[in-house]
Amino acid sequence: MTPTVADVAVALRRLAGECGEDVLPGASDEEIAALVRRVAALGATVPADHLTLLRDQDGFEADGLRVFGTTARRLTHGAVLPALDDVARDVEGGELDEHLVLAQGSSALYAVHRRTGAFHELDVVPGQVLAVHADLATLLMTAVDTRA
Asked: Can you give the pTM of this predicted structure?
């Protein structure tokens, strides 16, 4: 069965609980709209399903898995989880220029291809496509299942 964004949200909550991490509150409509505008200014589009996930929990970090949200957030253990558009700016002009990175694990990046909208699992070092997934939920469930 193909996972849904709701399945991803449950899996992230479970992982956070297993790791003793807090789940971030969901993003407001204003935060979502601001992110959409900032990412559009970079020439990209945030997938609708990712926005749905951000309404449930605005970013995530536990056990080596990071899902990027609407704004940079200081986490309980002192680390900073960057905003999705901050990550996009960091990779502009490089090998990942064709992708919008939505999440990062210890061994892969989870992204949407800007031109085609395909969901790609990318090798962290060279940015090569490791796998193409049918939708965002499948992409992020892969991230949850293959975390460090």
From this structure: 0.85
